[in-house]
Amino acid sequence: MKVKNAMGIALTAMLGISLLAGCGEKPAATETGAEVNGEQVAKIGYIGFLSGGGAAYGEAQKKGLELALEELNETNKGNLKIELLIEDSAGKKESAINAANKLINQDNVVAVIGPTLSGEMFAAGPIANDAETPIFGISNTAEGINDIGEYVFRNSLPESIAVPKAIEAAVNKFNIKKVAVIYCKNDDFSVSGFKTMKATAEKMNLEILGEETVSTGDVDFSAQLTKIKASNPDAILVSTLYKEGSLIVKKARELGLNVPIIGGNGFNNPQVVEIAGEAAEGLVVATPFSPEKQDENVQNFVKAFEAKYGKKPDQFAAQAYDGLYIIAQSLLKTGNADDRNALRDELAKLADFNGVSGKLSFDEKRNPVAVPVVVTIKDGKFVPFE
Ligand code: 1QQ
Predict the structure, then answer these.
(1) Angstrom distance (rounded) from CA 88 to CA 385
(2) What is the pLDDT of residues 336-381, one digit of tens each?
(3) Residues 237 and 116 in one domain
(4) Is the CB of residue 159 less than 8 Å from the CB of residue 237?
(5) Nearest ligand 1 atom to alpha carbon 54
């Protein structure tokens, strides 16, 4: 659906510069954005994994978005008010498709944030793209996300960048020569992460002893891990979401598999420590965000997040927070609260955005260009891996 362009809506840019004068005329309310007391309203949708086996991802994202929303609406008072419309997809493709259709065609949002899983984005992204509505992934790390189309963006670092960093760091420290891989075969993110793990291991001349698979919702991994143990690996590479991953880590340690475990983006959530407990110690992952980073921007965010929610943000909260800031900044630059095409063009120009999850620019495929850090779990916390 193509949206009517707003009639010379004046928004004041973040720096206080008036963008469009609007000839003194009061702008009319438009299809997607309504004007309330001179303030433009931008409706932004969020599709999140808010219930079910990966709900901790969605909860973290929702918290990050709501903190950003509060701050942005305060900063831009009188100019731009953002309304966040939240839909729970429960990690399911069908629900993500329905949510995207509702947000785009019924609620007339100017942009969609999410869905949480890469698989959901592969399902819902084409709906947004066909409707010429920007859709912005804040946690989609699989290969090929941006190939969906030019309305698809993401600030989440692809596994193809993050995973090799984690493997290289661990291999260098632990003198790893042979690895076993275990991954979730019915989750697009996990499969993509597995492919990257395999390619990285091959490139580094590591011997791959075996490839085991699991499915989402599985709770018993004894058979796969017993096989892995018998192959006597120097390390295990795990590509799954946090629930299955944490149980895999726990079981591996129970079976006396005490070699380093290197995971993907699915592990970047404190639920890993909740579920795996002591067994999570030493797990190695790469992430673009660490709440311990000594950076003013990051520490202000961590403080504000802790004040609001009583705990530190994880990577999913950080990327959600940055995502809403990026969209708000781009909307302000277009001078228009409801022009989906103008927003897309502005998003595509993003360069050197100084976010809490690092400095971000997009490459020509709208993929994030950013640098991950490798972290490990020590005393129940993610700390830099050295
Ligand atoms: C993806 C991911 C997941 C870990 C998000 C929760 O990275 O689906 O791409």
Answers:
(1) 34
(2) 999 999 999 999 999 999 999 988 988 888 888 888 999 999 999 9
(3) no
(4) no
(5) 6
Ligand 1 neighbour 142 (Cβ under 6 A): yes
Claim to verify: residue 23 and residue 146 sit in the same structural domain: yes
The ligand 1 atom at the shortest distance from the C-alpha of residue 117 is 8
Look at residue 266 and tell me if it is in a domain.
yes
- Residue 260: pLDDT over 50: yes
Is ligand 1 within 6 A of the CB of residue 121? no
Domain's final residue, options 287, 305, 339: 287
The confidence score (pLDDT) of residue 67 equals 98
Q: Please name which of 70, 87, 189, 187 lies closest in space to residue 128, comparing C-alpha atoms.
A: 87
AA identity, residue 233: P
Residue 111: C-alpha distances to residues 18, 344, 373 (Å) = 23, 9, 30
What is the 8-class DSSP label of residue 251? H
Note the pLDDT of residue 25.
Answer: 35
Ligand 1 pocket, 141 CB below 6 A? yes
353 within ligand 1 shell (Cβ under 6 A): no
Q: Give the residue whose CA is nearest to atom 8 of ligand 1.
A: 117
CATH number at residue 274: 3.40.50.2300
pLDDT of residue 36: 55
Instruction: Round to whole Å and give the CA distance between 168 and 190.
Output: 19
Same domain membership, residue 180 and residue 31 = no
- Whether residues 280 and 325 fall in one domain: no
Name the residue of 59, 89, 135, 139 to mutate for ligand 1: max ligand atoms within 8 A of Cβ.
Answer: 139
**167 lies in which domain range?**
159-287
Does ligand 1 come within 6 angstroms of the Cβ of 287? no
Q: Residue 10: is its pLDDT beyond 50?
A: no
12-21 tens-digit pLDDT: 333 333 333 3
Does 140 lie in the same domain as 38?
yes
Q: Do 257 and 166 have their domain in common?
A: yes
